[in-house]
Design brief:
Layout lengths: L3 H9 L13 E4 L5 E5 L15 H10 L11 H14 L9 H10 L6 H17 L2 H11 L9 H9 L8 H9 L13 H17 L5 H9 L14 H18 L1
Antiparallel strand pairs: 1-2
Helix pairs in contact: 2-8, 2-9, 4-5, 4-6, 8-9, 9-10
């Protein structure tokens, strides 16, 4: 277990951040050139949030980490509120991880719920805040989080659910993707439309509360119909591409 003394040493001399490694990506095409499947390289280059509509990153900040722009990696107020809620419930019922902590966990740590992992998460979050701007941290976060249906990162999620680049997302679509963060399974826009719509409304409410949008913009967004892209005809056979990918990589490795 990581002791308080060891943790203090880590904070005094933060560890070097591990390098980010990405597997090569292979795209499989049919004889006409149509994309059948893509494997590997799940994470693309960091998203440039300056090229997204302002309401896209604002949706994630509003629902996941309202004090993102004012904290240094962890939110003491949020942690205290979560602790009080947990004590009242008699068990761990609320999380208090900032976007930076979530990114640190995604980049460098496992999902184990141990005190040591949580302590390291805080250390790495502080180090990320020291080395990167808020825009860079947000870009890394949006590039790596899982949105369900095999989509890692907001570009993949935007293409999967709305068949468009993230730069063209509407306010409602952006809010629906931010809604997925609570649970990619429970709030999948394609598989759970009712739950997705309910959570999307909460995201838009949070955006009004934080001043990211006006009540009028919220009303207009809710009035827009949700048009989620249908799954491609090759989706049921994706297991075949999982098998094929292993065969291809083994063959390529043998030739290298």
């Amino acid at each position: 277990m990581l002791t308080l003394l060891a943790l203090g040493s880590l904070l005094a001399q933060p560890p070097q951040l591990p390098p980010i490694r990405r597997d090569p990506q292979i795209t499989y095409l049919d004889r006409s050139g149509a994309v059948l499947g893509t494997r590997g390289g799940r994470f693309g280059p960091p998203v440039d949030v300056a090229k997204l509509p302002p309401y896209v990153p604002a949706a994630f900040v509003a629902i996941e980490d309202r004090r993102f722009y004012s904290h240094g990696g962890f939110d003491t107020l949020g942690m205290a509120r979560a602790l009080v809620a947990d004590l009242g419930a008699g068990h761990a019922s609320q999380g208090a991880s900032t976007l930076t902590q979530q990114l640190a966990r995604n980049l460098f740590l496992s999902a184990d719920r141990t005190l040591e992992r949580k302590a390291l998460e805080l250390v790495y979050a502080v180090e990320l805040e020291r080395k990167y701007t808020k825009a860079q941290i947000l870009g890394l976060y949006l590039s790596r989080v899982y949105f369900g249906s095999g989509a890692y990162g907001i570009e993949a999620a935007s293409q999967r659910y709305y068949d468009k680049p993230a730069a063209r997302l509407t306010l409602r679509e952006a809010a629906s993707l931010a809604a997925v963060m609570k649970s990619p399974t429970d709030y999948d826009p394609a598989e759970q439309p009712a739950r997705s719509a309910e959570r999307t409304r909460l995201v838009l409410d949070a955006m009004v509360e934080t001043g990211a949008i006006t009540p009028r913009q919220r009303a207009r967004a809710l009035a827009q119909p949700a048009r989620v892209a249908k799954r491609g005809p090759q989706e049921p056979a994706q297991y075949f591409f999982d098998w094929l990918d292993g065969q291809v990589r083994a063959e390529l490795g043998a030739r290298s």
